[in-house]
């Protein structure tokens, strides 16, 4: 079967699965991930280029969507978002350390599980580099599926659990969003193309150049924003400024919505087929208990992050969930949250927390192997 046929067949089956609702809950776009895992198990492949294109398209669109409100919001709650991003990853890192110490799991396998539980591909890259072992990829493959699905279900279940009036909360968030973006959108600028693909592509190019900037760390390691953080930052900046002189560098919302959804689906197809290879054999070799340990690494950071955001920083529920999506570096969960709330405003708290969490998870994947070596 050709790659194109595989791609669209996964899309058809994945969206069909994601549309099934049980007591109001559905997988949404994450249904694509489940189907992709099955295809990956049977050795179907999606080119890496497809996954990378999906990732940069999604995060760039999120950056443009969040940009008009991001910097104002970040200035108001900067410490809250920074602390949340740090706290969520530290809980995940502590869980990883406990798994290594108490369960006698090999360090490369445990660190890979942590990167999978936090759905962090840059974290996996750091884990492979710091441990020098392919076992990190095995751990990532075990924990990644629940890392994705767990956060997706969490953002759907929590509003039901706290009996949140989503419509009322969305109306309040959208009103704030409109007020804060009115000044940006108030003056017409000259558009270079009708659909905004030129500024979108420019943001991707700039973001990928930012992604190449490498910062040296102790122990010979290096940190970079990568293909997820670089385009996100570029999208945020261009979405915030909206124009360069008399030229518009903003992108119409219909274009952003399409690129966001298409990018997410492509990324899940690539990540799923890759993680699905040898998945059953891996569980058979290392034990089904690894799946549950990975699930703990996903659940604990979310629960503790939610309590901190709500009780300590008094952040509203929807922005708390957006922050958790960012803290867990979960792009699929953000897509689900935006679909659930039918609001773009939740992307702001995601974008505010995500960069901090990204830095922390990469550092954790680099330093845990040093500590337990």
| Number of helical segments with 4 or more residues | 15
* Percentage of residues in helical conformation: over 70%
Backbone structural class: mainly alpha
Strand-and-helix sequence, N→C?
A: HHHHHHHHEEHEEHHHHHH
**How would you write the strand order of the largest sheet?**
1-2
Question: What spatial form do the alpha-carbon principal axes imply?
Answer: globular
What's the count of strands?
Answer: 4
Instruction: State which percent range the strand residues make up.
Output: under 5%
Description:
With 373 residues, this protein is an all-alpha fold. It has 15 helices and four strands. A two-stranded antiparallel ribbon has the order 1-2. Strands 3-4 form a two-stranded antiparallel sheet. β1 and β2 form a beta hairpin. α5 packs parallel to α15 (346-371). The chain is globular, with a radius of gyration of 20 Å. The N and C termini lie far apart (44 Å).
Q: What tags apply to this protein structure?
A:
373 residues, mainly alpha, two-stranded antiparallel ribbon, 4 strands, 77% helix
